[in-house]
Amino acid sequence: MTSPSTALVPSVDPAGDDGGTRETVATSAHVGGGRAWRRFRRNRVALFAALVLSVVVLAGLFAPLLTSFDPNLGRRLGDGLRPPGGEYWLGTDHVGRDIYTRLLYGSRYAILSGAQAVVIALAIGLPLGLTMGYFRGWVDRVMMRLVEAVVAIPAIVLALAIVAATGPGLTRAMTAIGIVYSMVIARLARAQVLAAREELYVDAARTVGSSHKRVMWRHILPNVAPALIVQTTLLFATAVLAEAGLSLLGVGARSDQASWGRMLADARISLNQALWPAIPPGLAVFVTVLSFNTLGDGLRDTFSREARGGRLGVDSVRPSSRPVDAGPADPAAVLSARGLWVEFPWPDGSGDDLAVVQDVSFDIAPGEVLALVGESGSGKSVAALSLVGLVPDPGRATAASVNLAGRELVGLDFEALRRLRGREVGYIFQEPSAALNPAFTIGRQIAEPLREHLGMGRKEARTRALELLARVGIPSPADRIDDYPHQFSGGMAQRVVIAMALACEPTLLVADEPTTALDVTVQGQVLDLIGDLSSDLGLSVLLITHDLGVVADLADRAAVMYAGQIVETGEVATMFANPRHPYTEGLLQAIPRNERRSGALATIPGTVPPPYAWPAGCHFHGRCAYAEPACLAQPIPLVNSGVPARCRRVDELVLGGVRRSDGTTGERM
Amino acid sequence: MRTPLLEIDDLSVTFRGRRLLPWRRRSEVRAVQHASLEVDVGETLGLVGESGSGKSTIGRALLRLVEPDGGRIRLGEVEVTSLPRSKVREYRRSVQVVFQDPVASLNPSMLVGQIIGEPLYLNLGLDGAARRARVAELLAQVGLDPTHATRYPYEFSGGQRQRIAIARALASEPGLIVLDEPVSALDVSTQSQVINLLEELQAATGIAYLMIAHDLAVVRHVCQRIVVMYRSRIMEDGPADRVCEAPAHPYTELLLASIPDPDPVVQREKRRRRRDLTAIASANPSSEGCPFAGRCPHTMDICRAEFPDYTEVPGGGRVACHLVGSSGGRAEPSGESVDVAR
Amino acid sequence: MLKLATGRLLAAVPLMFLVATIVFVLVQANPVDPAEVLLGQDASEEAINATRARLGVDRPFVTQYADWLSSAVRGDLGTSWFSGEAVTSDVARRVPVTLSLVFGSLLVSLALGVSLGVAAAVRAGRKVDRFVSVLASAGLAAPNFWVALLLAYLFSVRYGWFPAVGYTGPTDDLFGWVRHMTLPCLALGTSAAASIFRQTRSSMIGVLQQDYIRTSLAKGMPRRIVILQHALRNAAIPIVTLAGFQVSTLFGGAIFVEQVFNMPGLGSMGVDAVIRNNVPVVLAFVMVTALVAVLVNVLLDLLYAWLNPKVRPA
What's this model's pTM, rounded to 2 decimal places? Predict the structure, then answer.
């Protein structure tokens, strides 16, 4: 069990790269189109910081040209503590030295000291960390103990101890700082290498024949470099701060060295008489450090995408004025959606919107299982989540109507929608272990909606939770109710999630790929459970899946989605035997079945177009075997000649359904 | 009878946890136990199992990414298990891999041309114009445009990335490619494209495949023979059609029954069948006995006590099950009751 | 939990041992002869040798080390080479000062940093977030000794609201203690607050994107509970880790602040000893600071285990 401090991102980089990796559908298509430099160029703040730093460097470089004063001698006796003005642009300190001059020369010390510390830190820390991380074993363990010991001592304290050994002096002080920070670099490098080692592409590189050295140089280092570059920038900043501090204490720059820290030490002596001499050096340190930090932040943002959102992905479904391409809502339906659109702002900030879900409408009858079928990029998950306002940030959902058992959801605010969620609609998601909060027991998580929506007390909620656990088939519920999510296997965790979703006895269950992450033998159990619950409780189910087998198993009716639109709806039995849309046909034909091989698999040529490349006409054009030029001309309505299939050739085409070999029912199971 | 290209004999792989304190024993996970299989030249063998079955570990042992602690592996003329460290790199030419995750298996900071070119440079000594030309050829062979060589992996879709990974695997001209769940992360329409591509390539180059997967339907389509694994043990193997039409092991039966069929009529039948076969394990199986004991509807006492020997199956292959006695017929189960999931 | 605590404490022992060794070696590397410094360069040979014997520096290195270590473990940190005073009593007087400063600052920084961090994360990308983030960047960049100087000047010298120097113990005069602590803690806490703000914001943003937050929303839980209970509980983990690190940094920063405000803490003792190469005091300074930092980290490890059930021994 490693102490958490060994897994740390070092103190100089507190905002560790924790940013989440989930992206919205729209952004994944576009962000990342530029190379690193181009991205950095767009970050104006970071560019400005770089500019400021160049000014600092140049000021120090050309100091003798920019001032005629001597930094260490006052011009005249009695000119001490002059305020700014006249020949002394920034005034004088208590012995009459020109502050502006000292400031300029001070920047030399700042930059040089910083550079010295950083170079030493990298020279020691980088090879150390890289070796430790790559080779591990006892070398790593011994060195880590050493590093931990050094890091246990506060940095400045350790630097002081080193100075105690060597004697005061600016160079020695900065060397001490460099040695201290080499440990920080070593830890970061080690952590980065450890992580990179686990990457699949490193395994691939080894398999391809790369030697250890090559793997380190060509594969690991380029991916590790960004974090190290960011860290180095921040380290520079800290080194400048440290120099100022140590000089202030009197162990850094001597009195004849005009560093900013030295200026502060001098200013402190005369603090009672005048505040002014303390301002310019402090400000100089502040501006320099701030610029380094900002530059470092800018570099970090360049190398890794800034986590989008972070805000709660919730939004209401707003009213839409767009025309709806479907018949009137079924009054008896449990859920009735009409004209649902979900749009995301185009990532380059141009203000245009990209539709990910286009004009989706469907009904779910009481006790019915409706499957929303589609592959990745179809928008099925986004559509189902957006119905109750769980719109992934920064998307916006609009609809003509979303009716849940007589109640209109469009236009409701967060509070009103929230009361419906969990109470009238239950959700289960794809990754059961990720869907449960790792910090709380499952008993507490199941009890939460009971206490929130139904006002149950603690004991009552716990009893009901036990009942629910038994209902979903968890063996020995009383033993498990106080366990944490990580103590459950995938199938069991999914049952817990189902229990949680059904706690308040909702009328609708939305199941988003409930079995995709599970082993196939467990999958059947979970499907059985959902099917049983649906028939026993009269529960309607909106099942989102890409697996046609799951649809055949569980669903009564299905709506097939492709590239943001529903392309066909109908009863599963009839649709699978006689599809009316070419995409449905393609899907049904392409699935490998448990049957004797008869030539190559049928495929659908091409790939799903991303949202920004959807044609105005039929989205499936380009992959469709029956396409005609007229298919691109204009948008195709959902219903053609009375058939609920988005195809203008629906009358002419005779499409093949699920294959049956030898005219029998396919296989002998 | 030709000598098989790949021979794995009694392979065992155990993973050990870190030793926290010097006197404490390290935790052990037996990933693979006493596994034996063969792949002929130009053949495709399917290695099927669910998570924790050990199938991926066998692939990794073959690639020398993990070290086995028992048994031997022979590929062509090379005794892989007894290979000294210095010869391992040379050996790697003869076997390549395509991983499951198309995102993680390609180095994000390398150009596609560099990714495919690396093995050409390391193993075939190609450089400069010759290498670029070969990269273009390989890209075309996997159905991609040669201009894609100057792009980064993130600019491609999942299916295209898998094609790049396949091109990389082909570059070294290996005798065998380990396909570790190559299509599991892909959509149905992309999946069939990649599967067809793999078959075309095999027909053109005569490369053998060790295909590791969990989807029996896909495996049946692509493979001539299938090996079924459950929790570190091989339960059954044999010709693909035989295994999928007349499974000899209860676990294989359960696997087949669990694959949902898109034909609703057929699936209704399967559901019924699946319920009969399903049981929730009531106790952890012992490490000595059959790992499927407790979950199997026909569990007998002997199943928990010892792992069965392999017996020949009429129709081809072997099975390890106490139900199948050495007489060749199915023994009657002792009628032990098992919880059936509701 | 108790098992975890004892385990951690036991693990700290070899660590401290290693620290002690490193520091001892370091400090002894100084070639300057303390006897010469004390007596001056004109002193006679016998006087110098006598002083060296008195100080104990004529013994072999290993003997000095063993002697020092065995006394230190029993609580005797030797005597100052310059004042002749027992180091332990000096340290004992100064520890409460530094501890008040460090913990006061930690409190300030946590209160400020966490609350602002959560608020910024929930409004990530919008104006409020950008504004506070910029403030935090500035806070990180401002040298705490400079801030201390400015605060000291403004509020003590100019306006006299707070005392400029010194320290009063809380047991003697609670109100006086608070008054003395306010400016120093503010000065020291600023950059720590900025650090914690950034870590909180970053962790919260990461956590808010997790699947289980989506589940909480799908369950219909109110925003307040989702953010403050479900999300923060998980985001707190790296924050606690950072806080542990911050304690180390704060001990370092305390040195400067003690200087500016003339507080009789460990820092001022240490700096003085370093400049004059007063070896026993330097050793004591480093060891005590390290020890306190390690103990605080042990406490934080326990807090970490409470927050993260996966780490607890089963």
Answer: 0.83
